[in-house]
Amino acid sequence: MSQPRALVVDDEPDLRELLDMTLSRMGLEVETAEDLSSARRCLASNGPFALCLTDMRLPDGNGLTLIKEISRDQPDLPVAMITAYGKVEDAVAALKCGAFDFVSKPVDLEVLRNLVRTALQMHQDDIEKNGGRQETAAGKAQANQPPPQAAVSDSENALLRKRLIGESEAIQRVRRTISKLARSLAPVMISGDSGTGKELAARLIHDLGPRADRPFVAVNCGAIPSELMESEFFGHMRGSFTGADADKEGLFQAAQGGTLFLDEVADLPLHMQVKLLRVIQEKTVRPIGGRAELKIDVRILSASHKPLKPLVDAGDFRNDLYYRLNVIELNMPGLQERPEDIPLLARHFLKSIADQWNEPPRSLSDDAIQALKSHAFSGNVRELINILQRAVTLAEGETITANDLSMDAEPQPSGNEQRRPGSQNLDDYIEDVERNILENALREARYNKTEAARQLGISFRSLRYKLKKYDID
What we know:
Distance between the termini: 68 Å
Radius of gyration: 26 Å
Number of helices: 21
Strand content: 5-15%
CATH architecture of the largest domain: 3-Layer(aba) Sandwich
Structural class: alpha/beta
Low-confidence stretches: 136-150, 409-426
Strand order of the largest sheet: 2-1-3-6-7
Mean pLDDT: 85
């Protein structure tokens, strides 16, 4: 196999030489360009390339222009941006334009080598998807082909369809987006109501990307006590505080080379937001009691069922951290946005329940299917699973009817519909609504408070406080 080739675009001769030397020692054949026009000529006639590194500011244009052109014409070519130190805006802009990652000046060679290894793995994966074919931009133009789309293999499609069930336009759009996001290292904010599958989406982004063979570490930010957060995220050294009997690896170290998924990131207290922002910018962590900074190579994916922008406006979430985490947003649709998928999901989960409980599979009557399709799922897929588990337990025959589902007879308000407070004042009305939600969640979770908190998308501490507030036992 011939040597992989890299294109380095920068107007500083010293930096071009440093990058040329570093990449050559990694076994790459390197071509350099000093401006945008010469980079275009190289891409058109001297390819194919396995990697492109481009500076942000070039004598005759902008590196973002080159990134957009590569993303449009050669989507299988990984391109990374070289940004000035501290220029967060440039890095975010590059990722939004299609860069898979960025590296800051002065270039840290260890960070650069990790970036290059990831890019080469991405490029090799794309070649395998294309059946080993690799074409230059000139060859594609001569063949009079339309602008290419990034390849999606049959195995990727199969995995996406197996784990993201449904044929609605909403879920097909999610599958297409996940396939694209898997080819990038850009931070992704996954939004959506509780139970829509935000962690499932994060795992798919990881499993379909170049870090699939490295760790995927998920953490619920609302489930960690505030006083233990720094130790959980960054680790600690033995003797650094009372009870620290041994060195402890933090979540960032555990996810080294892979992906760290921050679920319910809105629950991070402000002091941890500051520390997290620094880690993302510096790509280093220091364990509590440690003297040395440890380099980390981790992709950050985050999720929240709460919209973060109102929290930013209220001063409860840092604006700079918001823009670093929310480079690309992926919204997971609720069941009300894809009711045609409910029968498919229900049959899938009924089969899974039968397999897990070692029981014969149950079917759904027509009235049961209609009842599910018309139900307002506040807990989405998670609520659907709970309803089906209860129905399997209560149903006497092999066919589950609408009565077996035991759903509330009165439909819950959905979309923009709201119940009117009537003669109640607003505070009393809101308290009644919250009390009902808490009681329903406890019933759905069979009075398991940890499960109820998870269904509601709040921390266990928040649930405990609210139960005490409303005197719910």
